[in-house]
Fold this protein.
Amino acid sequence: SSGNAEGPLRPGEKIFQRENCPELDLDGCQGKTFLRVLLHLAMHDYINLVSGALQLLLRHFSQRKEVLHAFKQVQLLVSQSDVENYTQIRADLDKLRLMVEKSELW
């Protein structure tokens, strides 16, 4: 199926479909054991433990957004001329950045 309850999948979202990656289901429960452990840790009195568990919970639930954002930042260089152009532009930008930094010091 190429869609979900919210409509068609956007590019990159297929990696989040659990049936496509059974090797990522490390606990055999689709990650529910991990969430239970983190929730249990968040109920302790030790503030560092609670803070770490809450940070991991937040990170766990924001991974999809982070990955999709990272995909938007990627540009594939599919030909040798693309690679050469990118390399030249990158070098020119580095030189320009250095000149701007030097001029700000004057």
